[in-house]
Design a protein that fits this description.
Length: 564
């Protein structure tokens, strides 16, 4: 026995317990409802900016495709070489859960397995959807987000909405979602529309689809979801029309296509090739019916509800936005006023989109798409039986009455030129026209999506299109690009479709303090110069041949009832 090796009894080896995967960690590709726009270029650009900044914000209105984009980002990372680093996805920032966990750092540890204070040195991706819910957690922003730098190992992507998630509207006095608690570089955030300021260092990108992406999504939607309903060809002009009405809003594209599939009025065309003029003739003639059909879709999260529009201050601001195609400026509202608070309320709920002006630091508020504006215009418009015919024979007659109501003081304030917080004169011409035409027409202006549709090389926005009379009015300021604006109504121009198919009568008004010197006799019935003199008290309206059409003096008190 001594020659034998010592025998040792083998003890059974316990199988080690598998490591617990943190709740927020993603290991499988998320489910994505098809058809979708793949957004390959956008995903690539976001990753490029994450590589440079380490923290990036995707900032847009409700139902604009942020959550879908997040899922596409996760899919790309899991498939590519970047997927070797762990990915964590969190939806919202529940303050009660954060408090119960013992603070933001421990809450992140419970969700990701990494303490919040250690996240900057953790090689992982953190995607936070509905991140606007974290705005009031100052400790999170100070302790993590503000400490992240290009040298950090982590990569953080914040998906924020200007509005409440799940279409839950906050109260008028509730500061539930405040402004972002840190300043982002323009290239550090991506919004609805591309920001040209980031070029040439980065590619300008936005959440709205471009023409190619939009037309592909329209075709895919009609083919995969409605092929059993519409058996004819989906024409290129149909796809392009949907793109130009939706302006590339992915949620609106899919919802709009679904509405077409349910439309009783389109059933007789189910076996015909789909052309855009069918849609304009059938769907848009009944806007109430269209909005009722679309009210149950995800897209409706970005639309205000009737009870919210009954707030007088909210209604006033939105009416002004309807009549202001170029948007509302924050500096136009007195801080602390009801209208200023209403604007903030509208913005936080996602009904207007905030963007920085190309020049200056003012904030501009615009509708996410013209479809959003059309919805609000239809809500505020009176019933058909309450609309009286316009008491004007031509768009020129209407324009004269509008200009007569201008307040010269609004144009001639001496501090306007010295104070950058006051709208420049060029902008004030438009603001006065928008204000006065709303008073003259008594809500008869209903913005139609047709006004943004063209078959030219570019899309454009006509300042005013009045469907009942098929009148169009374009505003110019201080002789700016007169020829360019006139060609928009010519064949191939942005507005030619309205001229051709709707027989639109149109005029271009050039508001100026400098009397023009060039005659344009080929536009005798379309171009008019509105020349202001004597500190904006005197007005001469000149025809295209520079002959006098009309002259009058503006009154400070024109708005008084005894002068109406």
């Amino acid at each position: 026995m001594a020659d034998h090796e010592e025998y040792a009894t083998q003890e059974p080896t316990a199988t080690p317990a598998p490591a617990k995967v943190p709740p927020a960690q993603i290991s499988e590709e998320p489910y994505v409802v098809f058809p979708i726009a793949e957004r390959a270029e956008l995903v690539k650009e976001i990753l490029e900016r994450l590589l440079h900044f380490a923290i990036v914000r995707i900032n847009a209105t409700p139902a604009s495709g942020k959550s879908t984009l997040m899922n596409l980002m996760v899919k790309h990372l899991l498939k590519g070489k970047e997927g070797h680093n762990p990915i964590y996805v969190m939806i919202g920032w529940n303050h009660q859960r954060v408090e119960n966990a013992g603070g933001w750092a421990k809450y992140l540890e419970a969700q990701t397995g990494v303490n919040g204070f250690k996240w900057p040195d953790h090689s992982g991706y953190l995607f936070l959807d509905e991140a606007q819910e974290s705005y009031q957690d100052d400790e999170l922003w100070a302790g993590l987000f503000k400490t992240v730098s290009p040298n950090s190992k982590c990569r953080i992507l914040l998906f924020t909405s200007y509005g409440s998630p799940n279409r839950v509207c906050e109260g008028f006095d509730d500061a539930k979602f405040r402004k972002t608690p840190m300043i982002f570089d323009p290239a550090q955030q991506i919004s609805l529309k591309p920001d040209s300021r980031v070029a040439p260092d980065f590619n300008p990108v936005g959440l709205l689809l471009d023409e190619r992406e939009s037309m592909k999504l329209v075709g895919d939607c009609m083919k995969s979801r409605l092929s059993s309903i519409f058996t004819g060809a989906i024409t290129e002009d149909f796809k392009r029309g949907v793109w130009q009405v939706t302006q590339g809003h992915a949620g609106l594209i899919t919802s709009f296509c679904d509405v077409l599939g349910r439309s009783k009025d389109l059933r007789e065309y189910r076996h015909s090739d789909l052309h855009w003029n069918m849609i304009t003739d059938i769907i848009f003639k009944d806007p109430v019916g269209l909005f009722e059909r679309i009210s149950g879709s995800q897209f409706s999260r970005g639309l205000p509800r009737s009870k919210d529009l009954q707030n007088p201050a909210v209604a006033r601001v939105l009416k002004q936005a309807i009549l202001s195609p170029r948007g509302l400026l924050h500096s136009s509202f007195v801080d602390g006023s009801l209208e200023s608070r209403a604007l903030s309320y509208i913005w936080r709920n996602g009904w207007l989109h905030a963007q920085t002006q190309p020049i200056g630091d003012d904030t501009q508020y615009v509708f996410a798409t013209d479809f959003h504006r059309w919805f609000c215009a239809c809500v505020f418009a009176p019933a058909d039986d309450g609309i009286q015919p316009l008491p004007y024979l031509s768009p020129l007659d209407l324009a004269k009455e509008v200009v007569r109501r201008f307040n010269p003081r609004q144009l001639s304030e001496p501090e306007r030129a010295m104070n950058r917080n006051i709208s420049p004169l060029e902008d004030q011409y438009g603001k006065e026209f928008y204000r006065c035409i709303g008073d003259v027409l008594k809500r008869r202006v209903v913005v139609s999506p047709e006004f943004s549709v063209s078959y030219g090389t570019q899309s454009g926005i006509l300042d005013f299109f009045i469907p009942g009379t098929a009148w169009g009015i374009e505003l110019l300021r201080e002789n700016d690009r007169i020829s360019e604006h006139l060609t928009r109504f010519a064949p191939g121009g942005q507005y030619f479709l309205l001229v051709k198919e709707r027989k639109m009568k149109w005029i271009v008004l050039n508001c100026t303090t400098k009397r023009p010197s060039k005659k344009r006799t080929e536009y005798l019935d379309q171009l008019y110069h509105v020349v202001f003199t004597s500190d904006f008290r005197c007005v001469e309206i000149l025809r295209a041949d520079l002959e006098l059409e009309s002259a009058f003096t503006l009154l400070e008190s024109h708005s008084h009832s005894f002068l109406s």
